[in-house]
UniProtKB/TrEMBL annotation:
UniProt membrane topology term: Single-pass membrane protein
Originating species: Carnobacterium divergens DSM 20623
A cellular-component GO term for this protein: plasma membrane
Source lineage: Bacteria, Bacillati, Bacillota, Bacilli, Lactobacillales
Protein name: PbpB
Function: A transpeptidase that forms peptide cross-links between adjacent glycan strands in cell wall peptidoglycan (PG). Part of the divisome machinery that synthesizes the septal cross wall. Beta-lactams inactivate the PBPs by acylating an essential serine residue in the active site of these proteins.
Length: 721
């Protein structure tokens, strides 16, 4: 009670407490401040770094993705910037009447746009008059526009038009070894289509396999700015320059690839197989000259992109009688093939079952050479037994059966080589019960066509640094020598009997003027549900491997066709496959002849200049003194392909076709020769149906119309009057 009556004494106590509390807080503050000053961090975070982040701005300097070329230097896949057109219809985003941000003059806007995109004025006006919407797009006609088209529209100073810029990958050939070349795309939301980032990444084929080489490394630039966005005094930007991706040159020959695509499309429509493959290879090196499959897709428009599997390396199948090429090679190498010795064809019993010839009853007592010609299963099981089951297994291993070729393509399969039970072993001698990939078979066949040396298949010729010009060239690789040169030569002689003897199963593969060594195949297919082989005349994989010229092959062509759906029994499987094999092999042999012949003509010769990679104006200026007939296809601003090829010798007045990076537009072909029309087909990948002979009189697609998405263009030729 006494203390409570002494307020002065209480105030002194409170003052002392406050003094010491303040002193303590001051000490804590000074200690904390000193700690921060010395350590430069708070709560484990670096303050200098935080300040630097607060005032540092940075921008990414994007690296250019490398270009993919064919063997002749024609671009197959290249970077491009495209634009998508949007028209703003609402005035709520306009600041004032003097500076409108929406479409004001719809009539003029429709008129200008109709001259630059593939839509009529009436269609555009209908879009521009859409009620109760803020903005409209123009479908596919308003997407993937080139810079030149954008510039042409911008020149008219129309209000309310917005161009969204997108980094894209341009595939000027359309359907062109699409699963082998592959795709590179930006990362998009699959549901909304919204772009997550605009970095191109390979998602298939060469684009994926060589993604790290193609994509390069992005750079960046850093600079200091205050909170108002002004540059800080005495601050200099720090720049790390981007490193562009390297260019990749494929081994594909553009002429053969385009011709192969055209042939496969035609045969696919004719017979509608479940799938089909074709590979053309140089057996001396292993270089893939052309390769494709059906189903395929247009890499530029993504039309028909529903089947992602690369059948050349990912699909495994039982090869059937084309496997007998390897069985024969092994028997020859072991000295077990006597062409004049005989055996009883038809049926052979083995432990666990029996082997039958394809006609079920055989041909009686025949020679082993006739057994080869007729593709007798019994003959090849006998040969396997004569050389020994273990020996045959060793040869299959030596030929790479059941092993990856290590092509570098994504998801390559190894196949399988089960070899335990007697019946299982016997089946492998004629290509059943063992699974392979098309690349594996090509690798094995190269040993027969290349004097016993087995070459690894490869599809990239070289990579090139575009800045330094430094090249990394792919060297042909010998991956084994399973047979001797003498064996290889003997087999080539015997395989000609398959094509030219009266009993040969390969008579359909004769090509006038050339000798072909070939082996046919008709492989049964396992039903995945029942685990038994399908029945029915069309439930097979029909195939052929052919080597030419037969005495010293420069080409190996392997074709497979699985379960043709348009099959009425009147055409054999061999005849259907010949519709693919014969035209492709004949065209390839003709090109080989042309490349081996000297050009004796010296009248009016000019050398074709390289004009790809430059503007249209520069290209025309480069060619104006050469007296050439130049046609430019497309409304882009840069030349991306040319025919004839650079440095080729041509005649003055010859037709030159140049393709730009814009939409492919139809030229006026009136008066053109058939060869000139085919140049357009080759350079664009567009299918043309040509009727008649002489020179062009009519064309189904009008001049300047967009060729993209047109299934077929009809052209009529007639002799000159």
């Amino acid at each position: 009670m006494k203390n409570s009556k002494n307020p002065q004494k209480n105030r002194k106590k409170i003052a002392v407490i406050l003094f010491f509390t303040t002193a303590l807080l001051f000490v804590v503050f000074i200690s904390r401040f000193s700690y921060i000053m010395v350590k430069g961090q708070i709560n484990g975070e670096n303050l200098s770094k935080k300040v630097n982040e607060l005032y540092t701005r940075s921008s990414v300097l994007k690296a250019k993705r490398g270009t993919i070329y064919d063997i002749g230097g024609k671009p197959v896949a290249l970077d491009a910037t495209s634009y998508s057109l949007v028209a703003v219809l609402t005035d709520k985003w306009s600041k004032d009447k003097e500076h409108p941000n929406h479409v004001v003059d719809k009539e003029k806007t429709a008129e200008v746009l109709s001259q630059n995109i593939n839509m009529s004025k009436e269609e555009i006006l209908e879009r521009l008059n859409t009620p109760n919407v803020d903005q409209v797009e123009f479908g596919n006609a308003g997407k993937n526009l080139s810079y030149e088209i954008k510039s042409n529209i911008d020149k008219n100073k129309l209000t309310g038009l917005v161009f969204d810029e997108t980094t894209t990958r341009f595939y000027p050939n359309g359907t062109f070894a699409s699963h082998l070349v592959g795709l590179a795309q930006v990362d998009k939301n699959t549901e909304t289509g919204e772009i997550k980032n605009d970095i191109l990444d390979g998602i298939m084929g060469t684009e994926q396999a060589y993604n790290n080489i193609l994509k390069g490394t992005d750079g960046k630039i850093e600079y200091k700015k205050d909170s108002f966005g002004y540059s800080l005094p005495n601050s200099k930007p720090k720049e790390v320059k981007p490193k562009d991706g390297k260019d990749v040159y494929l081994t594909l020959d553009n002429r053969m690839q385009v011709f192969m695509e055209s042939t496969l499309t035609e045969v696919n429509e004719k017979y509608a197989p479940k799938n089909m493959t074709a590979i053309l290879m140089n057996p001396k090196t292993g270089a893939i000259m052309a390769a494709s499959q059906r189903p395929s897709f247009n890499a530029e428009t993504l039309e028909d992109l529903s089947f992602w599997q690369n059948l050349l390396v990912e699909d495994t199948f039982e090869p059937g009688s084309t496997m007998k090429v390897l069985t024969l090679a092994a028997a020859l190498n072991e000295g077990k093939f006597n062409p004049n010795a005989t055996f009883m064809s038809g049926v052979k019993k083995v432990e666990g079952g029996e082997i039958r010839d394809h006609n079920k009853v055989g041909w009686g007592q025949i020679s082993y050479l006739e057994g080869l010609e007729r593709s007798s299963n019994v003959a090849f099981v006998n040969l396997m037994e004569q050389m020994g089951e273990g020996t045959w297994k060793n040869y299959m291993d030596a030929f790479g059966i059941g092993k990856s070729t290590n092509s570098g393509l994504p998801n390559e399969s190894t196949g399988s080589n089960p070899y335990e039970w007697p019946l299982e072993k016997a089946n492998t001698a004629f290509g059943q019960g063992v699974t392979v990939t098309a690349f594996q078979m090509m690798q094995a066949y190269s040993a027969i066509a290349n004097n016993g040396k087995m070459m690894k298949p490869y599809f990239v010729d070289k990579t090139v640094d575009p800045k330094t010009g430094k090249q990394t060239i792919t060297k042909p690789t010998v991956v084994g020598e399973p047979i001797t040169p003498e064996t290889a030569q003997k087999e080539l002689d015997y395989l000609q009997n398959v094509v030219y003897s009266e009993n040969g199963t390969g008579q359909a593969y004769q090509i006038d003027g050339y000798k072909i060594a070939a082996k046919t195949g008709t492989a049964e297919i396992v039903n995945p549900d029942t685990k038994k082989y399908y029945t029915g005349d069309n439930n097979y994989i029909f195939s052929v491997v052919g080597m030419a010229p037969a005495d010293d092959p420069e080409l190996v062509l392997y074709v497979t066709m699985k379960q043709p759906q348009k099959y009425d029994g009147t055409v054999t499987g061999g005849r259907m496959v010949a519709d693919v094999f014969n035209p492709i092999m004949k065209r390839a042999l003709q090109y080989q002849d042309l490349s081996n012949q000297p050009d004796d003509s010296d009248s009016n010769k000019v050398e074709m200049s390289k004009v790809t990679g430059i503007t249209k104006e520069e290209a025309l200026k480069t060619l104006e003194d050469k007296k050439l007939n130049v046609t430019i296809i497309g409304n882009g601003d840069t030349i991306v392909q040319q025919l004839p090829l650079p440095e080729s010798t041509i005649l003055a007045g010859q037709k030159v076709v140049l393709l730009t990076n814009g939409a492919m537009t139809m030229p006026n072909m009136t008066g053109w020769s058939k060869n000139d029309v085919l140049k357009v087909s080759e350079i664009t990948g567009q299918k043309f149906k040509i009727d008649g002979d002489g020179f062009v009189t009519t064309q189904s697609l009008p001049e300047n119309a967009n060729m993209e998405g047109v299934p077929e263009i009809n052209v009529t030729l007639a002799p000159p009057r």
